[in-house]
């Protein structure tokens, strides 16, 4: 990679227009660089040496752009990997919490069922006592 970049830089530096083209367009998007290069290549007033230097300058910009895109891509992949790990960890924690809540809910449901059975038993006792008292009242 280093040798290729050095060769491109040497070829670009053979004409002052190459370095100027590179520096003028370093902050532009690749599409804008292509448009500017196309305009230069179609201009009949620009010498062939200057056109060639601009082509080398655009190639240098393309290599720079590709290198930057590679770094951005690597950063995005690392971020997505971290985010996926975090998501997996949160999912595990949620599963654990759900199991705990389900167990707690089961205990509460069983307690409520026991209390309901006890209330039914007490109600049955009270009803029997009521019926007995009613019978005694009718007997008297």
From TrEMBL:
Domain Testis-expressed protein 13 A-D N-terminal: 1-140
GO MF, any single term: mRNA binding
InterPro entries the record matches: TEX13A-D_N
Family the UniProt entry places it in: Belongs to the TEX13 family.
Protein name from the UniProt record: Testis-expressed protein 13A-like
Coiled coil: none
Domain of life: Eukaryota
């Amino acid at each position: 990679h280093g040798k290729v970049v050095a060769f491109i830089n040497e070829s670009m530096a053979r004409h002052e227009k190459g370095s100027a083209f590179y520096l003028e367009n370093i902050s532009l998007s690749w599409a804008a660089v292509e448009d500017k290069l196309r305009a230069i290549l179609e201009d009949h007033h620009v010498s062939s040496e200057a056109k060639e230097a601009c082509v080398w300058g655009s190639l240098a910009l393309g290599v720079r752009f590709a290198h930057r895109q590679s770094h951005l891509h690597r950063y995005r992949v690392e971020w997505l990997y971290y985010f996926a790990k975090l998501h997996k960890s949160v999912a595990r924690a949620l599963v654990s919490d759900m199991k705990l809540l389900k167990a707690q809910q089961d205990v509460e449901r069983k307690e409520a069922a026991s209390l309901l059975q006890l209330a039914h038993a007490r109600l049955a006792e009270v009803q029997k006592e009521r019926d007995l008292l009613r019978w005694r009242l009718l007997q008297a």
